[in-house]
Amino acid sequence: MIVLRPAAEGLPCALWLRPNRVLSRKGLRRLIMVLAALALTTAGLGAWQGNVFAPLFALVESVAMAVALSVAWRAGDRGERITLDETSLEVRALPGQRRIHFQSHWVRVKLAPGKGRQRLMLSSHGRELEIGAFLADEERAELSRKLMVLLADLRGPWRK
């Protein structure tokens, strides 16, 4: 998901990149509860037919499933913020503190072939950085077009 905040007086232009998330936190809890209830109900039927260990295994499975779904859901918190002004382009990885600066007049945006997908690369002065790795191919192509337009606007009419 790409969210563009246009430049306002005193504030640079910003692009927020986030993976698409299907479930809210509340939806995730409901899904875990429904799956655990189904597993425990099935285990209860198995115990009724003589498999006394079925509820124990269903409980372990439910806990493992809840942990795995929670870890996968939390991976959706990652993202990137790209801040653009007349002099610099800054990419900040979220939720970390990694920041990489490029001079906005020298940075180049390119889509490069990768392992079964296109990679969106920013390059300047011998440094390269892949951005939007968690986005779909169509979103990366859209992001490259947006970045090229924003950079061209910042550079002015003589560099277009």
Portion of residues in beta strands equals 25-35%
**Helical fraction:** 40-55%
Main pleated-sheet profile: 5 strands, antiparallel
The overall pLDDT average reads: 88
Q: How many helical elements? A: 3
Low-confidence stretches: none
Q: Could you say which overall geometry the principal axes of the C-alpha atoms support?
A: elongated
Major sheet: arrangement of strands: 1-2-3-4-5
**Number of extended strands:** 8
Distance between the termini: 27 Å
N-to-C series of helices and strands: EEHHEEEEEEH
Structural class based on helices, strands and sheet pairing: alpha+beta
Question: Would you mind describing this structure in some detail?
Answer:
This protein is 40% helix and 28% strand. The chain has 160 residues and is α+β, with helices and mostly antiparallel strands.
Helices and strands in order, then pairings?
Blueprint: E1 2-5, E2 13-17, H1 25-48, H2 54-74, E3 79-84, E4 88-94, E5 99-103, E6 108-113, E7 118-124, E8 127-131, H3 137-155
Antiparallel strand pairs: 1-2, 2-3, 3-4, 4-5, 6-7, 7-8
Short description:
With 160 residues, the protein is of the alpha+beta class. The chain is built from three helices and eight strands.
Give short descriptive properties of this protein.
single chain, 160 residues, alpha+beta, five-stranded antiparallel beta sheet, 8 strands, elongated
